[in-house]
Amino acid sequence: MSSLKEINPISTNTENSRFHPLDQLTGDEIMTVAEIVRKGVPNLNIVFNTITLKEPKKELMMSYLGWDTTKPRITKIEREALVVALEKPSMKCYEALVSLDNGQLKRFEHIPDVQPILTMDEMFEVEELVAKDPRVQAECRELGIEDMSCVFSDPWAIARHVTYKGRSKRMMQALMYMRTCEDDNQYAHPLDFVPIIDLGLMKVVDIERIKPRDSKFTRPTIPLEKHNFLPEFVGEENFRKDIKPIIVQQPEGVSFKVKGTEIDWQKWNMKISMNYREGLVIHNVSYQDGAEKRPLFYRISLSEMVVPYADPFTPHNRKHAFDVGEYGLGLCTNTLTLGCDCLGSIYYFDATFNDHNGKPFHVPNAICLHEEDAGILFKHTDYRNGRAHAVRSRRLVISQIVTVANYDYGLYYYFYQDGSFQYEVKATGELNTHVLAEDETPGPYGVMVAPQINAQYHQHFFTMRIDPMVDGANNSICKVDTQRVPHATGHPNNMYGNGFYSESTILKDTAEGQQTANYETARFWKIINENRIHPYSKGPVGWKIVSNHHTPLFAQDDSVVGQRAGFAKKALWVTPYNENQIFAGGFYCNQSDGDDNVEHWVKDVQSIQNKDIVLWYTFGVTHLPRVEDFPVMPVEMCGFSMKPCNFFMANPGIDVPPTNKGINHSKLASKEKENKAACCTKL
Amino acid sequence: MSSLKEINPISTNTENSRFHPLDQLTGDEIMTVAEIVRKGVPNLNIVFNTITLKEPKKELMMSYLGWDTTKPRITKIEREALVVALEKPSMKCYEALVSLDNGQLKRFEHIPDVQPILTMDEMFEVEELVAKDPRVQAECRELGIEDMSCVFSDPWAIARHVTYKGRSKRMMQALMYMRTCEDDNQYAHPLDFVPIIDLGLMKVVDIERIKPRDSKFTRPTIPLEKHNFLPEFVGEENFRKDIKPIIVQQPEGVSFKVKGTEIDWQKWNMKISMNYREGLVIHNVSYQDGAEKRPLFYRISLSEMVVPYADPFTPHNRKHAFDVGEYGLGLCTNTLTLGCDCLGSIYYFDATFNDHNGKPFHVPNAICLHEEDAGILFKHTDYRNGRAHAVRSRRLVISQIVTVANYDYGLYYYFYQDGSFQYEVKATGELNTHVLAEDETPGPYGVMVAPQINAQYHQHFFTMRIDPMVDGANNSICKVDTQRVPHATGHPNNMYGNGFYSESTILKDTAEGQQTANYETARFWKIINENRIHPYSKGPVGWKIVSNHHTPLFAQDDSVVGQRAGFAKKALWVTPYNENQIFAGGFYCNQSDGDDNVEHWVKDVQSIQNKDIVLWYTFGVTHLPRVEDFPVMPVEMCGFSMKPCNFFMANPGIDVPPTNKGINHSKLASKEKENKAACCTKL
Ligand SMILES: [Co+2]
Ligand SMILES: [Co+2]
To answer: Chain B closest CA to A629's CA: distance in Å?
Structure first.
């Protein structure tokens, strides 16, 4: 999450600039919208939950982009803002739609039985509230803590609480820690109780004690041993001294062009945006293939996440964070630092969100755009004469880093010169920890990363929403399975037994569109356009989607998390495009019970063949923490990629020029050290 | 493979330098060894197949390294060379052992019924022979080729031929192509017949015609359309003009230290070597953990590969190249180019092998050693106050690139500052192609990447030999499976249904040591030392081995390739250490029938628990080619990694200092372009 220090309201001067329809709201627009809503409902005591651009309808955008040539081209689209507000103290939820073109409040309605996303303001309010609560203070005193300034809490979404279930009340739970000094790592000192907070009452309504299991103790003591990674604790004198700088420079400038938030790079063209929820979104991706500009994707984003924990006992069962739908990848985004988060020649984009009062808060350097060398792109040597041709791969990186309480995620979109696309998540930050009594063990649900510190097993699921546009709006999905030839060795059709083949199956409807990973058949999926046949392969042009990071959801299908995070049960779901289906876990994910998620949407069987479709693609990791993940976790990566698959007429990267030491100033390390023997050292 | 141009005999002056026991033979030593063997068997007409260092016995090395403290330390180990030679024209195989310390021929014996590795000399001889053969010329004439200088062949190992089976004869098969001009891509013009060559007779003994299937033609015509990627064909005027240089520099020098072929970097210490067979080998890896230098791995190498093709019909069934055992990753290694293969500050090592005459050939720049920035190593932000700490990851890269006829593989060993290790294969180069008649299709076994050009489906398996030494010679392997708690939602032990747990099983013997990948349980394996218990986790210290690139062998178990490449049937085999078991497919892999491979070795059940053990770990890809893989393939990556898993007392990277723009000169791209608006562009 962005720090409080960075929350600077920006200037309120009216702007005259014209917007691209996908440009996010400016600070001024946020204030204007808040004002319009307040004036529209003067008798309601509301706080603003989110104020965000209402993305234009796809059919309008398709025309605006020139991607739909069946209708006259639209050049202006009404600019609208979508507002979610909460009435105080009832915590009733309202939605408003505001036209920024004419300042009109077009819609304002109560949305019953939902709870919108949690906000930064609420995180801070809850932590303050908890520390002041007498029962919390009593709990702390019993643990030996008198000074409440040492006590910290990570407010979490409540999930679905056995007592406080439903959504009529807006609830949170607080995971409790202490610090032994300023900036001490609190995850080394977890406390054994969980306050439950009613945000309407702004009150701690319950405190749940986590009882030791199979222990002679009724309560664990607080582990006081420090486990820190910040420089003042490690001690600069203990830093490694033997790491020499690597300097990455582009003295002739970068290879990308930016206009507003539209990016042109190496035949790729796209528009980016960042909203409070999905964070970075990639819009309207196309590729210049000779004279033809071919559309590929209408919109790609990380639609939802869930991080379910393994321990079946209360309150751990409620730990299954939906980091997109409960906290927001935009709201939690970091201000990035040049030379630290980002190396080389960096282009930053800022982001702007709203606070409770409808005031903007600005996150500078929220998105990092830069290029990286990515090793060799291709190479071949003719061994006969040593004639070699090697070309280096360059990638365009568009990234953000989010902090969701203990965890931090780096989220990286990569575009390559061979037409491939990759998305990578780097999970880092802090393990969520739980305190054990001195004689207690984590059981088969976790590992002790320090005395009394249980790092519980968990999984991370990332569900991408991919709205494809492969050579047109109507696409299909085919499943590709590879199998042994069904004939024993010696059969005339498999004489030597080596035979195998691949089989493509087009998925017809939302029932078939529910796909699981299959290691046994090296399964992958293709987004194809059945209306365009590749002249060589004789099949539809396509785009292959691959992840090496599928993992099953280990929760029961009918578990609370299984219901709420139905999206994580399958590697892929395919649905017909529906403008209201943007978030795999539902728009109102917080305190949800699973009645508005992708699993629910596919209950009615609908056709998905040769239609405007959307993919919900999930990858993730099963994370069994290691001692080495403490006190801060080295990045753990997962992701997926998409590649042209019989789409272009050849390797689209063969026109990438080779480079050499004259161009990139590569040097012999041995010469730099004037070690003459180095270049003829024999093995 | 290294080019002929690079085969320069090196000086024959006697060297007085002292060797590390694992230093490969010098050119002088190779000549000396050849001379000793020739003098020892003056009446035999032999050619030298391979002359290579006989690696010292492990027990001696363990003492030499100080890793075995139970015996007095050995400081000098006898230097020996192992020679494989072939008698002409019988092609009988001999092994010789030569002491370099006293010039003695210690052993010379006939090895019956084997055929050693194919050599570069044989590749060239066979191609020349084939072009001169009258029956080949007649085939070509019938296809319309009069000028035999246009005809090229890729000589392949014969595999196991239905007629020429067994190993009494030394055989090859030649895959035929033509070129329409110099340096034309021959894989765009495959021919439809396969000469079979007897290397003893040095004669084409048969020609197999590949008949079109379901076609009205009896023979395909040769596709003449050019498909090229070399600059003179693409045309420099057609190169992308919009890619600006990226310059990577280390003005203060590199962070590694090299002494001979021993490398010190960031607490890692290792020795490297390159032999004719496995190419790059990593020896004696240890890690400085505080005051303790902890051994980790005795030896790591790519022990064998196999690339089986899908099409079950002759002669395609014989396409299952063992690139290590049939061609040799050392013999096929490229001379690397600064600024092209390798970017930044590069340290090169050369390699030296032997030719048929026992003369050395030298490959300059065979191994590239350098450092790379690898993104963030870890980051955490306290969202309360924005206090962030991010550290960049540096990796040490040790790599080679090999060319095995059409395919090229980049082979990269990576070491990281968080104690993790990674091995990555980048497959690139040219698809093996097969010509189709104008009306023919590849069936379900391939894809047409251009008219009449069938790129057949295939798999790539890479089997690593990992000789672990995790805190001592005696290690065990445990399998880790994660599963749902076996209780329905609502059961007292799984009230909310989220429960899952992980289970570790120590593998006791070579039967249990045969392991398949299991996506359903997110299975991975750990190398553990049961003699050292981690004080926090309370379990044995360990090292986790993970690949996201397991794929099943689709050939039948009893197929020819299934027998020969038994190693590819499992993700992991574990065997007790045996000094004669270095190559998963057998020492004499060429023309082998599977009687000396890892599958064979484990037939007798032997204990592997708390013993000196070896892992045979296989990863790979099922490669269904795309049109975009032609005429040269963008790199396709696969690999595996090993990480400390409850081995250290904390994240071993917390003492890595942060960097910043002052140190690494990172810059705003927008400032470079003097675009003042850029740093406050709003989304
Ligand atoms: Co995790
Ligand atoms: Co391949």
So the answer is: 6
Which of chain B's residues have a Cβ under 8 Å away from the Cβ of A247?
247-251, 664-665
Spot the catalytic one: B192, B323, B355, B408: B323
Q: Is B462 exposed, middle or buried (0-12, 13-18, 19+ CB in 10 A)?
A: buried
Tokens of A550: 């599928």
Confidence (pLDDT) at B12: 33
| pLDDT per residue as tens digits for the range B14-45 | 333 479 999 999 999 999 999 999 999 999 99
Which of B6, B420, B451 faces A536 most closely, judged by CB atoms? B451
Does residue A125 surpass a pLDDT of 80?
Answer: yes
Using the mean position of ligand 1's atoms as its centre, give its distance from the Cα of residue A395 in Å.
Answer: 27
CB contact under 8 A, B378 and A654: no
Neighbours of B161 (CB within 10 A): 20
| Structural domains present in chain B | 4-111 (3.10.450.40), 120-238 (3.10.450.40), 257-309+320-431+457-645 (2.70.98.20)
pLDDT on residue B676: 40
| C-alpha A406 – ligand 1 centre gap (Å) | 10
Spacing of C-alpha A437 from chain mean position:
35
Do A298 and A47 touch, CB atoms closer than 8 A? no
A681:B410 CB<8 A: no
Query: How far does the CA of residue A70 sit from the closest CA of chain B (Å)?
Result: 30
Q: Is the pLDDT of residue B198 over 70?
A: yes
Burial class for A66, CB neighbours closer than 10 Å (0-12, 13-18, 19+): exposed
What ipTM does this complex have? 0.95
Bond prior to B576 in cis (omega within 30° of 0):
no
Q: Do A594 and A600 meet the contact criterion of CB atoms below 8 Å apart?
A: yes
- Residues of B43-72 as b/e, b for ≥16 C-beta within 10 angstroms? ebebbbbbbbbbbbebebbbbbbebbeeee
Residue A683's pLDDT band, with cuts at 50, 70 and 90, is very low
Nearest to A680 among B124, B274, B350 (CB): B350
- Which residues, 6 or more positions from A368, have their beta carbon under 8 angstroms from its beta carbon? A336, A341, A342, A346, A347, A348, A397, A398, A399, A400
User: How close is the Cα of A373 to the center of ligand 2, in Å?
Assistant: 24
A244 vs chain B: nearest CA distance in angstroms? 5
Q: Does residue B198 carry a catalytic annotation? A: no
Q: How confident is the model at residue B675 (pLDDT cuts 50, 70, 90)?
A: very low
Q: Which chain A residues contact residue B386 at CB under 8 A?
A: 2-6, 335
Closest C-alpha among B636, B564, B567 to residue B165: B564
A511-529 mean pLDDT: 98
Check residue A680 and give its pLDDT: 35
Contact A377, B243 (CB under 8 A): no
Alpha carbons B421 and B346: distance in angstroms, whole number: 20
Cβ distance B249 to A244 less than 8 Å, yes or no, reads no
The confidence score (pLDDT) of residue B671 equals 52
Q: Quick: pLDDT tens for A9-63.
A: 333 333 334 799 999 999 999 999 999 999 999 999 999 999 999 999 999 999 9
Are A153 and A310 in contact by the 8 Å Cβ rule? The answer is: no
DSSP state at residue B326: I
Smallest Cβ–Cβ distance between A665 and the set B247, B495, B653 belongs to: B247
Positions of A marked catalytic: 323, 407
Give yes or no for residue A336 having a pLDDT over 70: yes
Question: What six digits make up the tokens of B156?
Answer: 């392949």
**CB proximity list for B68: less than 8 A, separation 6 or greater:** B59, B62, B473
Inter-chain Cβ pairs, chain A and chain B, closer than 8 A: 697
Among A376, A217, A407, A233, residue whose Cα is nearest residue A305: A407
Mean pLDDT of B467-488: 98
Is the separation of the CB atoms in B229 and A654 below 8 Å?
Answer: yes
